[in-house]
Amino acid sequence: MELELPEGTLLALYTDGLVESRDDDIDVGLDRLGVALARTGSSLEDLCSQVIEALPSQAPADDVTLLLARTQGLEPAQVASWELPNEPAAVSIARQAAVHQLSEWGLEYLVGTVELIVSELVTNAIRYSGGPIFLQLIQHQVLTCEVSDSNTSHPRPRHPHSIDENGRGLFLVAQLSRRWGSRSATNGKVVWAEQDLRSKAVAV
């Protein structure tokens, strides 16, 4: 199922232990959760605390897990995307595009690291997929580099021995990134890596 959510939508993922109890019907627990989550102006951390505080005083009969997320939109200027040919020349094209975009955003200090990450992710996409490859850079609270391809298999980092010539790409990506990972997409997968942005000094 796919749903288009407006900016600012609150998503709550939870286990049934949060809304079920020995004494109350599940509808009572759902109503209690809805009231707690309807409070506007609260941070996600505060909302989680308010939900837990609203639970009945007795210990829950099951494990309780709550994950909250709020949707946020991005301005077009915060996202740059390119379709790349599935051939070795795409690595150089991707590096040049990334360097140019980082310069446009004033993020030249990330060029060396992002060039290496882009090279490794695009090389893997060429090696293991047969369809088109897409590179996307997103500047938000962090800089995110995404490479998507048509292969549905998710990458697994290896720990190569000192004499191995291959298998170091994802290990390097993991070492150079704030976080990295992969997710399934409609026609394949997306491999992503994040870089921290320097705090912008505010003149007083």
Task: Write up this protein.
There is one protein chain. The chain has 204 residues and is an alpha+beta fold. The protein is built from 5 helices and 7 strands, in the order βααββααββαββ. The longest helix has 18 residues, at 111-128. The chain has helices at 26-37, 44-53, 89-104, 111-128, 169-176, and strands at 10-14, 66-70, 79-84, 133-139, 142-149, 179-185, 188-196. The model has no long low-confidence stretch (mean pLDDT 86).
Helices and strands in order:
Blueprint: E1 10-14, H1 26-37, H2 44-53, E2 66-70, E3 79-84, H3 89-104, H4 111-128, E4 133-139, E5 142-149, H5 169-176, E6 179-185, E7 188-196
Antiparallel strand pairs: 1-2, 3-4, 4-5, 5-7, 6-7
Helix pairs in contact: 1-2, 3-4, 4-5
Please outline what is shown here:
By secondary structure, this protein is α+β, with helices and mostly antiparallel strands. The protein has helices at residues 26-37, 44-53, 89-104, 111-128, 169-176; strands spanning 10-14, 66-70, 79-84, 133-139, 142-149, 179-185, 188-196.
Q: What would you report as the Rg, rounded to the nearest angstrom?
A: 22 Å
Shape label: elongated
Mean pLDDT: 86
Instruction: Assign the structural class, choosing from mainly alpha, mainly beta, alpha/beta, alpha+beta, or little secondary structure.
Output: alpha+beta
Count the strands?
Answer: 7
Order of helices and strands: EHHEEHHEEHEE
Determine the strand fraction and express it as a percent band: 15-25%
Distance from first to last alpha carbon: 49 Å
Helical stretch tally: 5
Widest sheet, order of strands: 3-4-5-7-6
Helix share bin: 25-40%
- Point out poorly predicted stretches: none
The largest pleated sheet is described as:
5 strands, antiparallel
